[in-house]
């Protein structure tokens, strides 16, 4: 557990910042995930978000299906056989128009100002946590000069999720709420909104651990495959999923930092040398997303990036 209390972007370079930074990189290098205590999001806001998430995800299916996206995994997700899972997403959630436009789509008869205000406040505060973590990683790797470039080439996607109560499914599927997978993006910040645990994370050694919050101000930070590739393997992208066996649904709000679709993911020259050659060929993030959503990609939950852009494939092609 890493305590971010009292630390902000304005603290960069201070002893307080450095003390937190020293913990962040080892956690993401060896586990790909850590629990962050971050008290900028008040408990009252979390409680409000729980009500908002329940109201949002209880809307009629035909309404939720309006949440579409040109990019895979960018809109409504649900109706998967054997999975009691639904979620809705807001792209560019930190931009002024994004949340009101989404609210107008879900509630055409009214703009739902309460939803807009609470979602906006949450997004702004959690985005700062994500930015701090990313900046700390780049500083630890000695490539902080790329921080601004990275921020300009990514956007935030806010997703509200519901994992149904186990009693709602067939007996043989009763513990599965979301298949184990790796996220495709840079970082994911998971906020558990109620007291229903279920997030499980696989460490690099293959051991699975229940990620249950130990503080009312806890978030879980999970690294994705884009960050793994950009860091030339130094940041570990952990497998994770949700498994439940209770009778109460689980709700969460997740903020994803995603590269722009046309953004090329390539490790900086400073992170590639003779001792650590390039692991992956450069690729456009949007192309990788489409691969992950393809029939082939969906079969490769554990090794999609390796199958898609492993550097050793170039050597094989050249030898052929």
Automatic annotation (TrEMBL):
One Gene Ontology molecular-function label = 2-oxoglutarate-dependent dioxygenase activity
Q: Give every Isopenicillin N synthase-like Fe(2+) 2OG dioxygenase domain span.
A: 163-259
InterPro entries registered for this protein in UniProt: IPNS-like_FE2OG_OXY, IPNS-like_sf, Iron_ascorbate_oxido_reductase
Highest taxon of the lineage: Eukaryota
Kindly provide the name given to this protein in its UniProt entry: (wild Malaysian banana) hypothetical protein
Species of origin reads Musa acuminata subsp. malaccensis (Wild banana)
Upper classification of the source organism reads: Eukaryota, Viridiplantae, Streptophyta, Embryophyta, Tracheophyta
């Amino acid at each position: 557990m890493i305590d971010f209390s009292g630390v902000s972007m304005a603290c960069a370079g201070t002893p307080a910042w450095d003390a937190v930074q020293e913990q962040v990189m080892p956690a993401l290098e060896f586990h790909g995930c850590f629990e962050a205590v971050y008290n900028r999001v008040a408990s009252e806001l979390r409680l409000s978000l729980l009500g908002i998430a329940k109201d949002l995800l209880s809307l009629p299916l035909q309404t939720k299906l309006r949440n579409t996206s040109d990019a895979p995994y960018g809109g409504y997700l649900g109706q998967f056989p054997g999975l009691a899972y639904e979620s809705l997403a807001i792209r560019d959630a930190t931009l002024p128009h994004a949340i009101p436009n989404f609210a107008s789509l879900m509630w055409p008869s009214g703009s739902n100002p309460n939803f807009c205000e609470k979602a906006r406040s949450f997004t702004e505060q959690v985005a700062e946590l994500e930015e701090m973590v990313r900046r700390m990683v780049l500083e630890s790797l000695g490539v902080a000069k790329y921080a601004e470039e990275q921020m300009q080439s990514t956007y935030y996607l806010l997703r509200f999720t519901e994992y149904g109560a186990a009693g709602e499914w067939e007996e043989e599927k009763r513990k599965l709420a979301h298949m184990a997978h790796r996220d495709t993006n840079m970082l994911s910040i998971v906020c558990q909104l109620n007291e229903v645990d279920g997030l499980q994370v696989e460490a690099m050694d293959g051991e699975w651990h229940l990620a249950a919050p130990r503080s009312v101000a806890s978030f879980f930070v999970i690294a994705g495959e884009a960050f793994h590739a950009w860091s030339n393997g130094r940041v570990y992208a952990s497998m994770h999923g949700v498994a439940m066996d209770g009778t109460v649904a689980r709700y969460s709000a997740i903020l994803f930092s995603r590269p722009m679709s046309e953004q090329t993911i390539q490790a900086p020259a400073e992170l590639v040398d003779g001792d650590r050659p390039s692991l992956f060929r450069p690729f456009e993030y949007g192309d990788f997303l489409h691969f992950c959503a393809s029939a082939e990609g969906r079969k490769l939950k554990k090794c999609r990036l390796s199958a898609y852009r492993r550097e050793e494939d170039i050597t094989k092609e050249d030898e052929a």
